[in-house]
Design brief:
The complex is a heterodimer of chains A (579) and B (613). Chain A has 579 residues and is of the alpha/beta class. Chain A has 21 helices and 12 strands. Chain A has 3 domains: 309 residues, ABC transporter transmembrane region fold; 167 residues, P-loop containing nucleotide triphosphate hydrolases (Rossmann fold); 64 residues, no CATH class. The N and C termini of chain A lie far apart (72 Å). Chain B has 613 residues and is of the alpha/beta class. In chain B, the strands form 3 sheets. Chain B has a 6-stranded mixed β-sheet with strand order 6-9-10-3-11-12, sandwiched between helices. In chain B, helix 5 packs antiparallel against helix 7. The radius of gyration of chain B is 35 Å and the shape is elongated. Classes of the chains: A alpha/beta (579), B alpha/beta (613). The interface between A and B is large, with 198 and 188 residues. Chain A: Keywords: ATP-binding, Membrane, Nucleotide-binding, Transmembrane, Transmembrane helix. Chain A: It is a multi-pass membrane protein.
Chain lengths: 579, 613
């Protein structure tokens, strides 16, 4: 929570102004009854119109001042609360961008989204309210207490007992409600999650006719959200009648003591009236406190959730010795590398060693789940290895600054992810300084230029979540263009030609050979491995065999089987004979 | 420091037209819904809880009258008993008061208790209906929307509705009650002074109108911007892997900031304007005090009204404006709720997937004969993706679609499953136009393994069972066995009960496809669609499941899309598509003999490569 308060520091001036303005308003409000009383007593009762006019004018003047103060306060309060929301969102987003994948596994996407929007809105509203009215109610309570004491300490004694009791009660409720609201927010996460899954998987749901099933699932989640909200709000709503009862009982006590006091001449009737009046005012103010309690306990729950993200330790960072280093050669070597995903103890990569020379084109081939994509994630340091060392340019990759390392690697992931925006933006995403010529060149190399030119608005056609329908292969090639546009020293293609037909793939591979970068490709296709200098055959996280296509045909049975499975027996024999 | 002092006045000002323009741009071409209409719809939901709602109103009446009765009796007690030192009378009165107070508290408690339930019920119903409606929308709707933006409507916008409903109804009813009570007393005391007090009402109306005209739109803009931000967050979080590998964090942070700034701007003005409301009300309130004092003073001087009346009147005019003030505040909060609700109703008024034709029937049994007759289709109006395609598939046959990327293969599947309907021509099954078959019964005979094999958060078992919800554990495991998925599943920490996270960390793309195949196995359909079902699976594994697949395909009509031609060689028919046209058809052997496009493809795929090596 402390951390959250520090978000307010940049706005201390604005906050001070807002609070001062609020106090001004409050003062006018408190003075007003006195003015009115004066007008009645001195003006109307004494039938003196000039007093009415003069003090009536003062009353109007005060109102104008209060109005001006109030309006200005609105400006400052919303400035502070909106800027606070802005800052918190920014800091959260910055932090999330620093997250490693291990960090991500702790927070599901939907939960991060709720924290960044819903939870921040809660905080924002709390601050806005705080600067405008929150102080009023407590001030009114305290002011009334003091006034009551000044009038008759004996009668006011009752209040001294009840008010602390009330505060204790409220604090208790608040901490309990805070926990309940935390559960509410967690459930919002869940609702959000079901919603997200349904949006992403909508096709699958439709073809399997599972809308009904999903509706039930959502209803269950939404139902739980309702129940949790209801139980949190109900707890809060108990406070109001409880406060009413307690305060009203103290009024009864005051009346009784007052009556005793009047009999024994220790209090005047006027005293009793005044103290009862103040007690009633306090009751009114305390009912506002209920609302404040609710807002505060929600804010606390949301604040905790925000802090949780902000306080997460990033576990993948630059080493002290890391520097901005240019990858000159682009040779890669793995030395006894082992790796297991966080929270799983099964090594996906087992004591793996190999070397890729600079400028080489290397294919990685292997069974489903043999660790190919995992291996790719290790090169740009999406994860750090558990054991062993990965070297680029004969240097441990941790010697490169993370950002710098990744900047020089072009990567095409297996699952194509395009962002909402135009084709041009999506390709330029790889390198923001790319000129339109660069973009077109990359598109040509990726064999997508011609397709783009047939789109309605060519390079300005919208794609991504809101855009036109592109086929799987088209998306893949845009994703390749995105990697090429950065002119990388190392190019990683993760099964990126799977949706391409052979002709297009051949052209693509040819275009790639014009580049001087080290290219590593994960593939299932023999056509790709044949066009490579070197092939790594992976099985269950272990390097089973390596060599050129020809070498592997002679040394590896598994490789032969793969080739045979793809080209058929007759052709395979031809191949073996050396055609 | 100076900067901080002036900053609140330096936010970019925007005219109503600009805001309207921005709001309407995002809302496609549909006409704006009005405030009253939306409110009526919300009311319609609230009214579903009629009994409870009337109970709440009864409770509000009770608690309001108890709130008025209490102070009155206290005053009486002081005057009649304390001043006169009548202890017995006082004790009696204190008892009565105690009872009143207890009733007051109980009524307050019950009204809140029920109201919370009603409000949350309303929100629950709206949220669930929104979700259910989403499932009735056609695929094109989802193709054009950002997921995060839609998600924001379910959470952030509903939150606005929820927080308003909790308190508004009670507040509005009790304010109106107090208002009516006070005005009656005032009228009784002095119609003339009442009239003067009422003079503020037109001013209030004008002031409120001026403000709410702005806040309404601003709230909407704020919610829209929040939705857009949500969309951006969702997208960039889903694409985290690519952002990291491209080390583009700075860029997305920068783009995030632009959206964040837009939200701040909209939020600032929405909040500032809405903050004006109580201030304006207070101000007018004070003016009316002054007016009463002045006019009252003059009247008293002339002896038209008694001084006592003026004194009481001043008190009442205070009481009169307080509920008005409350109403204004509630109105404000209502505006924000309406802004949220409107975005929810927007989706609900979105046109559903075209209803099944009137004469559409459920088909219990399907043999699986499929005919395409002169079918044309385009995603965009003026551009055909499929042009005049005709072919027939006999029951149990396997058909492969082959062709370069973008030739329209996946589109064929979209048409077959009626995600989209053909613009021209007829697709029929067992001789019956599929438009005369209900979508649900049509799809119930089909199973799909799609290009993106999507897994839900849950266990592997649950994910496979998605194919047939009532399948037993044994059936699930058997399907996995058949799909060759069992071997890797058994290596997982908890085997079939391994819990998959949303982003499926630690499970490879190929393994996902195997699970998807198991899912289709379990569904046991008449028509099977495999859209690049094995593209991420290595060829050895593929050989292994090929056997299982051919077992699966036996007796079923199967449509296969694959780039690796060897996977389609055994198909009964190969349909070669190019630029949306069906250019060749036949078996593998026949097509090779034809020496056309397919033969070319085949050659480029095998021999050319082989020999050039």
């Amino acid at each position: 929570m402390k951390r959250l308060f520090s978000f307010l520091t940049p706005y201390r001036v604005a906050i001070a102004i807002a609070l001062t303005l609020m106090l001004m308003e409050l003062t006018v409000e408190l003075v007003q009854p006195l003015l009115i009383a004066y007008i009645i007593d001195e003006g109307i009762l004494k039938q003196d119109l000039s007093v009415v006019l003069l003090w009536g004018g003062v009353l109007v003047g005060c109102s104008v001042v209060a109005f001006a103060a109030g309006v200005t306060n609105s400006f400052y309060s919303s400035h502070v609360s909106q800027s606070l929301g802005f800052d918190v969102r920014k800091r959260l987003y910055d932090k999330v961008q620093e997250f490693s994948f291990t960090n991500f596994s702790r927070f599901p996407t939907s939960s991060l989204i709720t924290r960044l929007t819903n939870d921040v809105t809660m905080l924002q509203n709390t601050v806005f309210m705080g600067l405008r009215i929150m102080m009023r109610a407590p001030l009114l309570v305290i002011g009334s207490m003091i006034m009551a004491f000044l009038i008759n300490p004996r009668l006011a004694l009752v209040l001294v007992i009840t008010v602390p009791l009330l505060i204790l009660f409220l604090v208790g409720i608040m901490s309990k409600a805070g926990k309940l609201f935390k559960k509410v927010q967690q459930q919002v996460d869940h609702v959000n999650n079901v919603m997200q899954e349904n949006l992403v998987g909508i096709r699958l749901i439709k073809v399997f006719l599972r809308a009904q099933h999903e509706m039930i699932r959502f209803k269950r989640s939404s139902d739980a959200l309702m129940d949790k909200t209801v139980s949190a709000l109900r707890l809060i709503e108990v406070t109001m009648p409880a406060i009413l009862l307690l305060m009203n009982v103290s009024i009864l006590v005051i009346l009784w003591y007052g009556s005793v006091g009047v009999t024994s001449n220790q209090a005047s009737v006027g005293d009793v009236v005044a103290v009862v009046n103040y007690a009633m005012r306090m009751t009114g103010a305390l009912s506002i406190v209920t609302m404040i309690i609710m807002v505060l306990s929600r804010a606390k729950a949301s604040g905790d959730r925000i802090s949780e993200v902000l306080e997460t330790d990033i576990d993948l960072i630059d080493k002290e010795l890391s520097e901005n280093r240019v990858i000159k050669n682009g040779n890669i070597s793995f030395q006894n590398v082992s790796f297991a995903y966080p929270e799983s103890h099964i090594n996906v990569i087992k004591n793996l060693s190999f070397t890729i020379k600079s400028g080489e084109r290397v294919s990685i081939i292997g069974a489903t789940g043999s660790g190919k994509s995992t291996l790719f994630g290790l090169i740009p340091r999406l994860y750090d290895v558990d054991d062993g060392e990965i070297r680029i340019d004969d240097r441990d990759i941790t010697a490169f600054k993370l950002e710098h390392l990744r900047q020089q690697i072009g990567c095409v992931p297996q699952e194509v992810m395009l962002f909402t925006g135009s084709v041009r933006e999506n390709i330029a995403w790889g390198d923001e300084h790319a000129t339109f010529e660069d973009i077109q060149e990359a598109a040509k190399r990726a064999q997508i230029h011609d397709t783009i030119m047939t789109l309605p608005k060519q390079y300005d056609t919208l794609i991504g979540q809101k855009g036109v329908n592109l086929s799987g292969g088209q998306k893949q090639r845009i994703s390749i263009a995105r990697a090429l546009v950065r002119k990388p020293t190392i190019l990683l293609l993760d099964d990126s030609t799977s949706a391409l037909d052979m002709k297009t793939e051949a052209k693509l591979l040819e275009a790639l050979s014009e580049l001087s970068c080290t290219t590593v490709m994960i593939t299932q296709k023999i056509s790709t491995t044949m066009a490579s200098d070197h092939i790594l055959l992976l099985d269950d996280g272990i390097l089973l065999a390596e060599g050129s296509h020809r070498e592997l045909l002679e040394t590896s049975d598994l490789y032969c089987k793969v080739v045979e499975s793809q080209v058929g027996k007759e052709t395979f024999t031809l191949v073996q004979r050396g055609y | 420091m100076f900067n901080e002092v002036t900053k609140p006045f330096r936010y970019k000002k925007r005219s109503l037209e600009e805001i309207d323009q921005a709001n309407s741009k995002a809302k496609s071409k549909k006409k704006a819904q009005n405030f009253g209409g939306t409110l009526k719809k919300i009311w319609h939901y609230l009214a579903m809880n009629k009994v409870k709602l009337s109970l709440v109103i009864v409770m509000v009446v009770i608690s309001s009258s108890m709130a008025l009765l209490g102070p009155f009796l206290v005053g009486m007690g002081i005057d009649d008993f304390i001043v006169k030192q009548d202890t017995d009378g006082l004790i009696r009165l204190l008892w009565i008061l105690a009872i009143i107070y207890v009733i007051h508290s109980l009524a307050t408690w019950f009204q809140a208790l029920w109201m919370i339930r009603i409000a949350q019920n309303t929100v629950f119903t709206m949220r669930t209906q929104l979700f259910n409606h989403l499932h009735k929308l056609p695929i094109p709707f989802f193709d054009k929307r950002q997921h995060g933006e839609l998600m924001s409507r379910v959470t952030n916008d509903m939150e606005n509705v929820s927080s308003t409903l909790n308190s508004s109804v009670i507040q509005i009813v009790s304010s109106i009650l107090t208002l009516v009570g006070t005005v009656s007393v005032m009228l009784y005391l002095s119609p003339l002074l009442t009239l003067i007090t009422m003079l503020v009402i037109p001013a209030m109306y004008i002031g409120l109108k001026w403000i709410t005209k702005r806040t309404g739109r601003l709230f909407k803009e704020q919610q829209r911007n929040l939705g857009e931000l949500n969309g951006y967050i969702q997208e960039t979080l889903s694409g985290q892997r690519i952002i990291k590998t491209f080390s583009q964090e700075k860029k997305v942070i920068y783009q995030f900031e632009e959206r964040n700034e837009r939200l701040r701007l909209a939020g600032f003005w929405a909040q500032t304007f809405s903050g004006f409301i109580p201030k304006v009300m207070n101000f007018l309130n004070n003016l009316s005090f002054a007016a009463i004092a002045l006019v009252g003073g003059v009247l008293a001087l002339n002896g038209v009204v008694s001084i006592g009346v003026i004194v009481i009147f001043v008190e009442y005019s205070r009481q009169f404006t307080r509920p008005l003030n409350d109403l204004a505040n509630q109105f404000n909060s209502l505006l924000s709720a309406v802004a949220g609700a409107e975005r929810v109703f927007d989706i609900m008024s979105e046109e559903e997937e075209r209803k099944d034709e009137q004469d559409a029937v459920d088909v219990d049994e399907l043999h699986g004969r499929v005919d395409f007759s002169h079918v044309s289709f385009g995603y965009e109006k003026d551009e055909d993706t499929i042009t005049d395609v005709s072919f027939s598939v006999e029951k149990g046959e396997t058909v492969a679609f082959v062709g370069p990327t973008g030739a329209g293969k996946t589109t064929m599947i979209n048409l077959l499953s009626r995600f989209y309907d053909a613009n021209e021509g007829v697709i029929s099954m067992d001789g019956r136009d599929i438009q005369t078959i209900t979508r649900s019964s049509l799809r119930s005979h089909m199973a799909f393994v799609l290009q993106d094999s999507f897994l839900f958060e849950g266990t592997i078992r649950e994910n496979i069972r998605y194919g047939r919800l009532n399948a037993t554990d044994e059936e699930v495991e058997k399907a996995a066995q058949l799909a060759n998925a069992a071997s890797f599943i058994r290596k997982m920490p908890k085997q079939f009960d391994t819990y998959l996270q949303v982003d499926g960390q630690g499970i490879s793309q190929g393994q996902r496809q195997l699970i998807a195949i198991a899912r289709a196995m379990l569904a046991d359909p008449k028509i099977l669609v495999l859209d690049e079902a094995t593209s991420s699976i290595d060829t050895i594994t593929e050989i292994n499941i090929q056997e299982a697949l051919s077992r699966l395909m036996e007796g079923r009509t199967s449509f296969v899309i694959a780039h690796r031609l060897n996977t389609v060689q055994n198909a009964d028919q190969i349909l070669v598509l190019n630029n949306g046209e069906l250019i060749e058809r036949g078996t593998h052997q026949k097509l090779l003999q034809q020496n056309g496009f397919y033969a070319d493809l085949h050659a480029s795929q095998l021999k050319e490569k082989m020999i050039s090596d």
